[in-house]
Amino acid sequence: MNRIFLSFLIFLIKETYSNEPFQSQYCPKDKSLTHPCSCGQFTSYPLPSLFCNSTELTVRKLRKVLDSVTEIDSFNHLQILNGDLKALPRNIDGDKDFLAIMIGNSNVTTFDVRAFEGSFHTLETLIIKENRNLDSFDFSQLYNYEKLVALYMHDNGIKEVRGFPIMNHINTLLLQRNEISYIEPFARNEKLRYISFAENKIKEIPRNAFMELPMVAEVDLKYNQLDVIKEGTLHFNSKDMVSIVLTGCGIEKIEKDAISGINPHTIVDFTDNHIEVLYEDVFNPLIQTMWKNMGLIKLHGNPLKCSCSTFGWLSKDEEYLVHLPGAVCQDGIKLTEFLKDSCKDIKIEL
Length: 350
Hints:
There is one protein chain. By secondary structure, the protein is an alpha/beta fold. The protein folds into two domains: 1-180, Ribonuclease Inhibitor (Leucine-rich repeat, LRR (right-handed beta-alpha superhelix), Alpha-Beta Horseshoe), CATH 3.80.10; 198-350, Ribonuclease Inhibitor (Leucine-rich repeat, LRR (right-handed beta-alpha superhelix), Alpha-Beta Horseshoe). It contains five helices and 20 strands.
């Protein structure tokens, strides 16, 4: 990731949103910038930033602000907070170009993805957050942003993700805390590594949803409504797969061959679900892939109904349980202790 992208991430983490950014030698010298926006400098990068943090900000006023700046065409960041934008139309930027844009809590109800046409060749980070009435977004138009690296769209009202295009630079896609109930399988994206659909309303993952992402490292699906993980859904084709997070999804059943393509170091997190039995045809292939490496299957908070008939296969080798940390039977006994004390053929030294 380049210096500008990293600096903006730090900016977000610290939440240093300022109504009075420090002055920049790169801001318009003729003071043409109109209320309610101000100009300042966020990083040492030699471009100014625009800060529009006001409940008075409407689309009409935003267009007026951008049109009023004639001295400068290129900016570092555009930050819009607490505005009243409603419908964001095409080409709102007046052909100004930005490296990063953030629109937060600004009552956006519709968003034309081509709103920032001036930034088609420059934009690296796009953040649209806390607009609960924004329930749709045309992801297919994102291909216009040729250099887009990160898309953050959390705490909106997005209901579906369809038509995500092939993009040359996209690395991060975070869509947590929306109203998403449907996702379409991804087209091939060579550099997409981090994906979050956490805290949505997804009930079913389509077959091979992530198969065309050869560099994906983390997929976060926690706190959705995935009571069944069906065969063929979580198949991966990435040598860098680090974690699959399925915490708190209400999972009761995992079908055979539901998860494949993991690596010896992958962590699969099933914490706080409703899994009762660790079927050999489901879990043994995962353990065999992780065998004597760093991979883990997290099972804490599942009501495992331990019995020698269904869990006895785990006694084949003491290393199996190393990959199942936090596995506890429904009665509170650790799975390792149950296998040792209750199953006659157990050969595990604790």
